[in-house]
Amino acid sequence: MANPRRVVIENHRLSPLINLLKKPQAFPLLLSFFLFLTWITLRLQHSSHVSSSSSSHPKSTLKSHPDLKIVDDDDKVNLVRFGLASLSPVRKDDRGWLLDPIILARDSQLKGGAASCVSIHVGEIRPGGLRGNHRHHTCNETFVIWGAKTRFRLENHKVEKGYAEVVIGEDEVAVAVSPSGTAHALINVDPVRSTFFIGCQDNIQNNSSTSDYKIWKDL
Fold it and tell me: What's the whole-model pTM score?
């Protein structure tokens, strides 16, 4: 059987709250309280979703795009690649692709590329051919590479062997940057197709003494 004295004490303690809830001013207070609880719940759900997404896609960053392909070691060679099967930053419509290499490298958060296209060269690399394998000391360079299966190598002293390299697919367009003082090389490893590339430098190379050649003996 309930203790009458205890019931009286509990009712006495609750009576101010009950009286407050009976007043018209209580409605805005209660509404604000429930809105605050709802906001807290949504924030917790959002944080949980973001954490789950991050763990499922550890390579996803601000530079990610639905058509941007992220492959292991791309970050070690300062490169991003895009597929051409659907609309992307390099494929604007059904006519084909169009891009500004400086803007695309910057928007993709690639560091150390050409600040402007003071000097530009466009080239072809036939199957089995090689371009580069050199190091410029007085310019940064930004590349656009497409057309064939191509190996791109970039000097990187954070890697044990002193460089990193990736293979770009024949159905991809890649943008890569080579900061001043960093060696690079492009090798066509496609049995049939030619590789095409644009090299954009932010300084004119007039003197060969500012560059080192034949960096890697295995190329």
Answer: 0.67
